[in-house]
Amino acid sequence: MGTENAPGGKASPDPQDVRPSVFHSIKLFVLCHSVLQLAQLMISGYLKSSISTVEKRFGLSSQTSGLLASFNEVGNTALIVFVSYFGSRVHRPRLIGCGAILVSLAGLLMTLPHFISEPYRYDSTSPENTPQDFEASLCLPTASAPAPAPTNGNCSSSTEAQHLGLVGIMFVAQTLLGVGGVPIQPFGISYIDDFAHNSNSPLYLGILFAVTMMGPGLAFGLGSLMLRLYVDINRMPEGGISLTIKDPRWVGAWWLGFLIAAGTVALAAIPYFFFPKEMPKEKHELQFRRKVLAVTDSPARKGKDSPTEQRPGESTKKQDGPVQIAPNLTVIQFIKVFPKVLLQNLRHPTFLLVVLSQVCLSSMAAGMATFLPKFLERQFFITASYANLLIGCLSFPSIIMGIVVGGVLVKRLHLGPVGCSVLCLLGMLLCLFFSLPLFFIGCPSHQIAGITHQPGAQPGLELFPGCMEACSCQSDGFNPVCDPSARVEYITPCHAGCSSRVVQDALDKSQVFYTNCSCVAGDNSVLAGSCDSTCSHLVVPFLLLVSLGSALACLTHTPSFLLILRGVKKEDKTLAVGIQFMFLRILAWMPSPVIHGSAIDTTCVHWALSCGHRAVCRYYNNDLLRNRFIGLQFFYKIGSMICFALVLAVLRQQTKEARTKESRSIPGLEQQLLVSEPGKKSEDSRV
């Protein structure tokens, strides 16, 4: 390649021979890696934006969908520890490219259930050869109507096996999505740090993280667009559909977002197969950085609050993890050494408490990211598309702002370990304060005839009123209608006793009414669709408070990371960070979606049945849903605050003991002044 002889002092060959390839530029690698990590987080976060849609399409409970979301971390956790072992021994760009291709294939695999399953039938009670929403949902006399089929009448062993196969494909795809993402971030960061100029490396990594943080926001924006399209847009039934996006039976094109994101990842993976295993180290500091440093006097950058600065020649060993400790370890030796180093780090109280606090915060974030769209959709009766749009525009920008402000505060205030713990504790206290009003902002549940009862009503009544006993209603039907005068909702027109259907064409859309309803007073007519909510406007102040609380919680990101770096020995720092992320995945990102999903399921008041088994929840008790979802978030926030308070107590105790020890060992004030700086360094290293 002509670059290896350049530093050796030999005469330079012909300029055409020494001209480096365009892929020998670390700046190009930073650009490519920013795009790749953006696309990877977009495809990883897209499922969370369409979680309620996937539940409706495949009849999943929130517990099952939470387990599906957490399987992204299973494959990642199983292999992430060995990334530190391999370090720079492998061709990192090619391995990153292979991982990205696997992520792209996993995204395509996620769409497979859509193409191999039957078209979505939003009214399962209507025969396949008749228009949906027509006579099957009406109240017909028992003598002239076919006998209602049992709930599991259309079920067979092959049908159940097909359903399990579709769900199993998505679980496999999520696992492969996690496996493919294993080498992308660690190898990319170490590659940048190895070959960037020592002064430019922090700037490159800052740009990388800033661009990457936009990935989840783009995922929710993509979900907002895709869920406006009907799920079977590629195979629309003849004559179209009568659903609108506000209908609770609406299912958006969840699979289309995976196709787009998978294609983006595949395109972003191509350049990595052209980057070399090693490239010449960047020789010059960026002009931009040099000018900034000239304007802002930065003696503190060389101090203890800048963990990313290092001496020349040090960066190539920084990211090798256990290789830094023992460069010639074999895989077997690495497996034997790892538990010893793990226990050694866990004996540090600061490290253990900070990791536990981050586990609580990550559990809160995992549950919020997975089920916040569904929570907003059910609590405030808004569409899934609108919920995703609000989250993408409000929540994720506030999270980025919180992380940036936390880093700026640490830098400007020159915070040490005690100052970092105070900032973390203050951030969590404010987060708890602004989270309290969330318990009281929400919409009450709709009054559902035969399912929810007014206060004072006698429990144990029959499932549906007696006014529709003459009708032959399907027990598993779902075609909600609303009596606007009484604000009562019926799960089908049949359960309202309606015997006819009228369509009124307007200028922009048609309105469907059901008439001659024996269970409805007044004009005996109901409106198709669920009842409108009078408090849907509260979703904006609710989400503003959630975003503010998220920003305050994210203030702890940078200071808590610095506490971990200063809470372990210098030679254990890299592996300590790896252990930290391993614990976050095992204790937070894997179980938290399942825990939140189970809590949501306990608030369901009416389940849809599939082959005799509970499928998706049709109606929730909104007060219970709000109290349990927000209460679970509040529990994790309190746990994090307690851990940060203990960290502050431990650090103050250690500082007090260090000062007492110094005062006993130094007899005079003059000697104390002479050795004050070494004593400070000893205290810092101990912390």
TrEMBL record:
<feature type="region of interest" description="Disordered">
    <location>
        <begin position="661"/>
        <end position="687"/>
    </location>
</feature>
<keyword id="KW-1003">Cell membrane</keyword>
<feature type="region of interest" description="Disordered">
    <location>
        <begin position="298"/>
        <end position="321"/>
    </location>
</feature>
<keyword id="KW-0813">Transport</keyword>
<feature type="transmembrane region" description="Helical">
    <location>
        <begin position="164"/>
        <end position="182"/>
    </location>
</feature>
<dbReference type="InterPro" id="IPR002350">
    <property type="entry name" value="Kazal_dom"/>
</dbReference>
<feature type="transmembrane region" description="Helical">
    <location>
        <begin position="384"/>
        <end position="410"/>
    </location>
</feature>
<dbReference type="GO" id="GO:0043252">
    <property type="term" value="P:sodium-independent organic anion transport"/>
</dbReference>
<dbReference type="InterPro" id="IPR004156">
    <property type="entry name" value="OATP"/>
</dbReference>
<feature type="compositionally biased region" description="Basic and acidic residues">
    <location>
        <begin position="299"/>
        <end position="320"/>
    </location>
</feature>
<feature type="transmembrane region" description="Helical">
    <location>
        <begin position="586"/>
        <end position="609"/>
    </location>
</feature>
<dbReference type="GO" id="GO:0015347">
    <property type="term" value="F:sodium-independent organic anion transmembrane transporter activity"/>
</dbReference>
<keyword id="KW-0812">Transmembrane</keyword>
<feature type="transmembrane region" description="Helical">
    <location>
        <begin position="350"/>
        <end position="372"/>
    </location>
</feature>
<feature type="transmembrane region" description="Helical">
    <location>
        <begin position="203"/>
        <end position="231"/>
    </location>
</feature>
<keyword id="KW-0406">Ion transport</keyword>
<feature type="transmembrane region" description="Helical">
    <location>
        <begin position="422"/>
        <end position="442"/>
    </location>
</feature>
<protein>
    <recommendedName>
        <fullName>Solute carrier organic anion transporter family member</fullName>
    </recommendedName>
</protein>
<keyword id="KW-1015">Disulfide bond</keyword>
<dbReference type="GO" id="GO:0015125">
    <property type="term" value="F:bile acid transmembrane transporter activity"/>
</dbReference>
<feature type="domain" description="Kazal-like">
    <location>
        <begin position="461"/>
        <end position="521"/>
    </location>
</feature>
<keyword id="KW-0472">Membrane</keyword>
<dbReference type="InterPro" id="IPR036259">
    <property type="entry name" value="MFS_trans_sf"/>
</dbReference>
<keyword id="KW-1133">Transmembrane helix</keyword>
<feature type="compositionally biased region" description="Basic and acidic residues">
    <location>
        <begin position="678"/>
        <end position="687"/>
    </location>
</feature>
<dbReference type="Pfam" id="PF03137">
    <property type="entry name" value="OATP"/>
</dbReference>
<feature type="transmembrane region" description="Helical">
    <location>
        <begin position="95"/>
        <end position="116"/>
    </location>
</feature>
<dbReference type="GO" id="GO:0016323">
    <property type="term" value="C:basolateral plasma membrane"/>
</dbReference>
<comment type="similarity">
    <text>Belongs to the organo anion transporter (TC 2.A.60) family.</text>
</comment>
<feature type="transmembrane region" description="Helical">
    <location>
        <begin position="251"/>
        <end position="275"/>
    </location>
</feature>
<feature type="transmembrane region" description="Helical">
    <location>
        <begin position="538"/>
        <end position="565"/>
    </location>
</feature>
<dbReference type="GO" id="GO:0016324">
    <property type="term" value="C:apical plasma membrane"/>
</dbReference>
<dbReference type="GO" id="GO:0006811">
    <property type="term" value="P:monoatomic ion transport"/>
</dbReference>
<feature type="transmembrane region" description="Helical">
    <location>
        <begin position="629"/>
        <end position="651"/>
    </location>
</feature>
<feature type="transmembrane region" description="Helical">
    <location>
        <begin position="67"/>
        <end position="88"/>
    </location>
</feature>
